[in-house]
Specification:
- The chain is α/β, with parallel strands linked by helices and about 290 residues long.
- The protein contains twelve helices and eight strands.
- The chain has helices at about 20-30, 40-60, 65-75, 80-85, 100-115, 130-135, 165-180, 195-210, 215-230, 235-240, 245-255, 265-275, and strands spanning about 10-15, 35, 75-80, 90-95, 120, 140-145, 155-160, 185-190.
- It has an eight-stranded mixed beta sheet with strand order 3-2-1-4-5-6-7-8, with helices on both faces.
- α1 packs across α2 and α8 (about 195-210) packs across α11 (about 245-255).
- It is globular and about 55 Å long.
- The N and C termini lie far apart (about 50 Å).
- The model has no long low-confidence stretch (mean pLDDT about 95).
- Bound molecules: 3-hydroxybutanoyl-coenzyme A.
- 3-hydroxybutanoyl-coenzyme A binds near residues 149, 154, 196, 231 and 245.
Length: about 290
């Protein structure tokens, strides 16, 4: 039976970057009160500004009115002060830097702030949910909630069951996922979960194909877009995700599985070392203005 998530009304999103702000937007659009927190006021406010710009685009397209946009924005509260703003929250989603120690420090802290009933979730793209849950007093109320970039547009949420995540927690989150207008899938904890387990070898193989001179960046992207009906080719998508993020996940899969098929392509390493990280640095496989 599906557990009811209607008691979840106030959500904290920690990390106001691209993913965190996107996740905050998804919740605010679905009517939830959202605390959007980061390490400085400036970063938290920037997250809200990013949401506002994204909403402007859909106002222009006529999908929502200016009034609806303002209502959505009024539900998002940027802050650095979790002690005072998260103490009555029902759910927290972490979307900070992909470093296990930083995540554990955060979860240790928020576990003491949020009420006992609250569920804690990480938007990690591959790291161990069980390890993060282990520093809290509520590992049964802890799970992975992996959104996809851009969160307001992408339909999928991967829910990851850690070693001690309870079925009740999972059922509540499945119900919540549907209320957000998303399609949830469930995976038990394993490196890369479902999507990144499949995506990373695919992207990596594209880098090897390029390195071997099989075809150009444009040709490989065109082949994948038209031959597989993907919205973006592997190089466009890599630039969109960020090459540093991809290398980080690819290395994690390689280290965890210890199998050569996950070995990151040297071309990817070189580009990351050269600072060609994709859209965010103005250049990756393509150049951006
Ligand atoms: N809020 C709400 N809706 C928005 C929005 C926003 N901020 N921005 C755009 N939209 C809506 C638009 O209104 C539009 O809706 P419509 O089709 O009904 O008119 C739709 O989203 C598409 O927007 P655009 O027309 O502006 O953009 P494109 O059609 O060019 O699509 C894209 C852009 C959605 C990014 C598409 O290219 C795509 O799907 N790319 C692949 C993305 C992908 O694979 N993401 C996953 C990355 S992997 C990941 O995240 C895992 C991590 O762990 C690495």
């Amino acid at each position: 039976m599906t557990a009811d998530s209607s008691w979840i009304k106030k959500v904290v999103v920690v990390g106001a970057g691209q993913m965190g702000s996107g996740i905050a937007q998804v919740f605010a659009q679905a009517g939830y009160e959202v605390i959007l927190s980061d390490i400085t006021e400036e970063l938290a406010n920037k997250g809200k500004e990013r949401i506002s710009k994204g909403l402007d685009r859909i106002v222009k397209k006529g999908k929502i009115t200016e009034e609806q946009k303002n209502e959505i924005l009024s539900r998002i509260h940027p802050t650095v002060d979790l002690e005072n703003n998260a103490k009555d929250a029902d759910l927290l989603i972490e979307a900070i830097i992909e470093k296990m120690e930083a995540k554990k420090d955060l979860f240790k802290k928020v576990d003491k702030i949020l009420p006992e009933r609250a569920i804690l979730a990480s938007n990690t793209s591959s790291l161990s949910i069980t390890e993060m849950a282990s520093v809290t007093s509520r590992p049964e109320k802890f799970l992975g909630a992996h959104f996809f970039n851009p969160p307001p547009v992408m339909k999928l949420i991967e829910f990851i069951k850690g070693y001690q995540t309870s079925q009740e927690t999972l059922d509540i989150m499945l119900d919540l996922g549907k209320r957000l207008g998303k399609t949830p899938v469930v995976a038990v904890e394993a490196p890369g979960f479902i999507v990144n387990r499949l995506l990373m070898p695919f992207l990596n193989e594209a880098y090897f194909a390029l390195q071997e001179g099989i075809a150009s960046v444009e040709e490989i992207d065109t082949a994948v877009k038209l031959g597989l009906n993907h919205p973006m080719g592997p190089f466009e998508l890599s630039d969109f995700i960020g090459l540093d993020t991809i290398l980080y996940i690819a290395e994690y899969l390689f280290n965890e599985f210890g199998e050569d098929k996950y070995r990151p392509c040297p071309l990817l390493r070189k580009m990351v070392r050269a600072g060609k990280l994709g859209r965010k640095t103005g250049e990756g496989f393509y150049k951006y203005n």
